[in-house]
Design a protein that fits this description.
The structure holds two protein chains of two kinds. By secondary structure, chain A is α+β, with helices and mostly antiparallel strands. Chain A folds into two domains: 3-16 and 183-330, Aldehyde oxidase/xanthine dehydrogenase, molybdopterin binding domain (Aldehyde Oxidoreductase, domain 4, 2-Layer Sandwich); 25-165, Aldehyde oxidase/xanthine dehydrogenase, molybdopterin binding domain (Aldehyde Oxidoreductase, domain 4), CATH 3.30.365. Chain A has helices at 50-62, 90-117, 144-155, 220-239, 298-310, 321-330; strands at residues 3-15, 25-31, 37-40, 69-72, 124-126, 131-134, 137-143, 160-165, 185-197, 203-213, 271-276. In chain A, the strands form three sheets. Chain A has a four-stranded mixed beta sheet. A four-stranded mixed beta sheet of chain A has the order 4-3-2-8. In chain A, strands 5-6-7 form a three-stranded antiparallel beta sheet. In chain A, α1 runs parallel beside α2, α2 packs across α3 (144-155) and α4 crosses α5 (298-310). Chain A is elongated, with a radius of gyration of 25 Å. The N and C termini of chain A lie close together (10 Å). Chain B is 34% helix and 16% strand. Chain B has five helices and five strands, in the order ββαβββαααα. Chain B has helices spanning 25-33, 88-95, 105-118, 124-130, 142-158; strands at 4-10, 13-19, 51-54, 57-60, 73-75. The longest helix of chain B has 17 residues, at 142-158. Chain B starts with a strand and ends with a helix. Classes of the chains: A alpha+beta, B alpha+beta. The A-B interface holds A 46-49, 221-222, 224-226, 228-233, 256-258, 262, 264-266, 268, 271 and B 42, 44, 46-47, 97, 99-102, 127-129, 131-132, 134-145. One FE2/S2 (inorganic) cluster (FES) is lined by residues 99-104, 136-139 of chain B. The site of one FE2/S2 (inorganic) cluster (FES) has 10 residues of chain B, from loops.
Chain lengths: 333, 161
């Protein structure tokens, strides 16, 4: 009876979004009378950071500080349509819609500022700190707040914008089955080291090393957070979680957290991550977003590591101690 | 069935209320008092997001009878901050990106507070044990463990309750 070390590797090319029906998302941007900007969406932030990222994207496009932008989302009654938070599409699709909406709002903001300063809007630039100035004449400035007040109470003008992002719908070629499902791919490679106990069938993950290519990391801390948390979820899927442990037999079906197994804080393995940035051309500021890909490579990498360790090939998940022991017995060990 | 009047202190404020027989503390706090900071997760004592301190001891509000806290002092996440100043644990959770959806966060904070109250210099393993009754679906725990260790280090140098 012994502990066996094994190493497994997996790679992923992960499609961003999908393309049946064009995969659209919309955004609306408007200013408040005091020169803050509201981004209205119906896309869901369930912790992955959609609100933070769309806020950054809007601020960058408008040319105002991030602290002056608010994102209101997750209500499909008050926000414009979004296909949803799935298929790793949030940053890319919603971000592109926000860029368009914010660009329109910025144009109106500069027009209103031009009227106040009596210059041509084309000569204006934002300083990113809440001011607008005449290019080449930095002493001629006006604050975004003053522009918003003038637009609202004097000029009778809104500072607002609408945006939609739609991928040209791609038909399936009936002859070849060919279509273009996505506009860009993200990539990952991962090596997982495990230790398998051939007496108990228990798998302990020793270390994870990974490299992710996500376009530009628009918010590097959020990217890291998603990659760490997502890998944990993948690990959980690989080794612990199932709603039907004896599928298709429905016996022993977990009904609560006592019987639905998830790894706890004591099962965390060190995870070293390298984030590679290769900005995508059609992505907002080059960011593709990590999304579902965070969890995906873990499953095959763990399965490969278990095979490397004890020669048992599990092809259905999770890889439970029971399956490993059955596999060991089948192998005659 | 008759309601029972109880009085207890919640985050330093005296509260009196009527509770139903069998009503749990989580329900009494959320619906009775309107303190929504302890979250409703599993309601059966397995996820930890409803954690509160009762007389300084970590307790799961969903499986604590409301009547049982009569005369006690209850602390929830809403009582962690000192006015507008966040508790070092709260600040550390923010600085270390220790929340994604945030649903587990109140329970994690209370479990961490209970730990630091009794052990201001925890090792990593102590932190792991202290939060082992709390489930987090999003973060993979690592940022939470780091945030608690960093808050402990900060509090040792600056000293704060
Ligand atoms: S709600 Fe109390 S432990 Fe889950
Ligand atoms: S942050 Fe979502 S459950 Fe912990």
């Amino acid at each position: 009876m012994a502990l066996h070390r094994g190493r497994g590797f997996a790679c992923v090319n992960y499609p961003i979004g999908m393309n049946l029906g064009g995969d659209p998302s919309q955004a609306l941007v408007h200013s408040t009378p005091d020169g803050k900007f509201m981004v209205t969406l119906s896309s869901i932030d369930l912790g992955q950071g959609m609100k933070s990222v769309t806020r950054q994207i809007a601020a960058e496009t408008l040319g105002v500080p991030v602290s002056d932008v608010y994102v209101d989302t997750a209500d499909s009654d008050t926000g414009p349509h979004c296909m949803g938070s799935f298929a790793s599409r949030g940053t890319h699709r919603v971000g592109n819609a926000v860029i368009r909406a914010a660009t329109e709002a910025r144009t109106q903001m500069l027009q209103a500022a031009a009227e106040e300063l009596e210059v041509d809007a084309a000569d204006l630039e934002t300083d990113g700190e809440g001011g607008i100035r005449v290019r080449g004449a930095p002493q001629r400035t006006i604050s975004v707040a003053d522009v918003a007040v003038a637009a609202q109470f004097k000029q009778g003008r809104t500072l607002s914008g609408r945006g939609i992002f739609l991928v040209p719908p791609s038909e399936v070629d009936p002859e070849t089955g060919e279509m273009s499902p996505v506009t860009c791919f993200a990539h990952a490679a991962m090596a997982v080291e495990v230790e398998v106990d051939d007496e108990t069938g228990m798998v302990r993950v020793i270390e994870i090393n990974s490299a992710y290519e996500v376009g530009r990391a628009l918010n590097p801390k959020l990217v890291e957070q998603q990659l760490v948390g997502g890998a944990w979820m993948g690990l959980s899927h690989a080794l612990y979680e199932t709603t039907e442990p004896y599928y298709p037999d429905r016996d022993h079906l977990p009904v609560d957290f006592n019987t639905y197994l998830m790894p706890g804080p004591g099962d965390v393995a060190p995870h070293n991550i390298a984030v590679l940035e290769r900005p995508a051309e059609d992505a907002p500021f080059g960011g593709k977003g990590p999304g579902e890909m965070c969890a995906n490579p873990v499953l095959p990498a763990v399965a490969n590591a278990v095979f490397d360790a004890v020669g048992v090939r599990c092809d259905d998940l999770p890889i439970t101690p029971e399956k490993i022991l059955r596999g060991l017995r089948a192998n005659g060990s | 069935m008759a309601k029972t009047p109880i009085a207890f202190s919640l985050n330093g404020m005296e509260r009196s209320m009527f509770v139903d027989p069998g009503q749990n503390l989580l329900d009494a706090l959320r619906r009775g008092v309107g303190d929504l900071s302890p979250k409703y997760g599993c309601a059966q004592g397995t996820c930890g997001t409803c954690s509160v301190l009762v007389d300084g001891k970590l307790q799961l509000a969903c499986i604590t009878l409301a009547e049982a806290v009569a005369g006690s002092s209850v602390t929830t996440t809403a009582g962690l901050a000192d006015g507008s100043e966040l508790h070092p644990l709260q600040r550390s959770f923010m600085d270390n990106f220790a929340a994604q959806c945030g649903y587990c966060t109140p329970g994690m904070l209370m479990a961490a507070k209970a730990l630091l109250d009794r052990n201001p210099s925890p090792q990593r393993q102590d932190v792991v044990e202290a939060i082992s009754g709390n489930l987090c679906r999003c973060t993979g725990y690592e940022p939470i463990i780091d945030a608690i260790l960093k808050a402990a280090a900060f509090m040792r140098t600056r000293g704060r309750p």
